[in-house]
Amino acid sequence: MKKLAQSTEHLSEPALKYFEHWSKKDYQGSAQYLDDNLSFKGPIDTFNNSRDYVQAISRLATIVTGVRKKKTFLDGKDAVFVYDLETTVAGTVPCAEWIHSDNGKVKSIQVFFDARPFAAMFAHKQ
């Protein structure tokens, strides 16, 4: 069983490293683990490349005060993180983030959270 756990962790390594940097607000450091053609989907934005995604999360740094990871699930090339996103505008927001890695890079990220508390911030996008 230990060998299976090590193998799964190795396949999920890019996701684990990405999340480690991202959760510390080291967005440029997290970028090294992202595929150039990253697919990101969330309740507010969608991106099809890592450059635009990193720019967007870097702009949000001013409202993020912390990330409290609650649980990590690993399954082959997939990792799911359950965490509380602590913000200045919406308080503490429960989130789940599904990350798929392949060939040593994060290929896709899908994040799930209730976006209603952020509506006023993104009213201009409508």
What does this protein structure show overall?
This protein has 126 residues and is an alpha+beta fold. It has one domain: Nuclear Transport Factor 2, Chain: A. 29% of the residues lie in helices and 40% in strands. It contains four helices and six strands. Strands 2-1-6-5-4-3 form a six-stranded mixed β-sheet. The longest helix has 11 residues, at 13-23. It is globular.
Briefly summarize what is shown.
The chain contains 4 helices and 6 strands.
DSSP helix fraction? 25-40%
* Basic shape: globular
Report strand order across the widest sheet: 2-1-6-5-4-3
> How large is the radius of gyration?
15 Å
Could you tell me the CATH topology label: Nuclear Transport Factor 2, Chain: A
Approximately what portion of the residues adopt beta-strand conformation? 35-45%
Number of domains: 1
Characteristics:
alpha+beta; disordered N terminus; globular; 126 residues; six-stranded mixed sheet; 6 strands; single chain; Nuclear Transport Factor 2, Chain: A
Question: How is this fold's topology laid out?
Answer:
Layout: H1 2-11, H2 13-23, H3 27-31, E1 34-41, E2 46-47, H4 50-59, E3 64-75, E4 78-87, E5 92-102, E6 105-112
